[in-house]
Amino acid sequence: MFDRIKTLRQEAADMKAANAEELEALRIKYLGKKGEIAALMNDFRNVAAEQKREVGQLLNELKDTVQSRINGLRQSLEEGQSSGGDIDLTRTAYPVRLGTRHPISVVRKEICDIFARLGFSIAEGPEIEDDWHVFSSLNFAEDHPARDMQDTFFIQHSPDIVLRTHTSSVQTRVMERQQPPVRIICPGRVYRNEAVSYRAHCFFHQVEALYIDKDVSFADLKQVLLFVAKELFGQETKIRLRPSYFPFTEPSAEMDISCNLCGGKGCPFCKHTGWVEILGCGMVDPNVLENCGIDSKVYSGYALGMGIERITNLKYQVKDLRMFSENDIRFLRQFESI
Ligand code: DAH
Question: How far is the CA of 94 from the centre of ligand 1 (A)?
Answer without folding.
Answer: 49
